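This section describes the prediction task in plain terms. A model, or a person checking by hand, is given the sequence of a single protein chain and must write out its three-dimensional structure as a string of C-alpha cells. No templates, partner chains or ligands are provided. The sample shown here is typical of the held-out split.
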Amino acid sequence: MEKLKEIWRTTVDELMNKVSWPTFEELRSSTFIVLIASIIFALTIYVIDLSFGFVTNTLYDLLKG
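The expected answer:
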C-alpha cells in the first residue's frame, strides 16, 4: 500500500510542478491548427476516394462492355 501512495504522490508532484501547461492562447492556437489540418486531410482523402471511384467505375464500364 505504501508503494501505491508513493506512486500517487510522485504523479501529483509531476503534474503540479514539472508539467508545462499551455496558456489559453497557446491552446486556442493549437486547436485551430489541428482543426485546419484535419479539414485539409479529410478533403484530401475525399478527393482521392472520388478519383479512385471514378477510375474503377470507368474500368468496370469498359470491361463490362
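For orientation: The chain has two helices and no strands.
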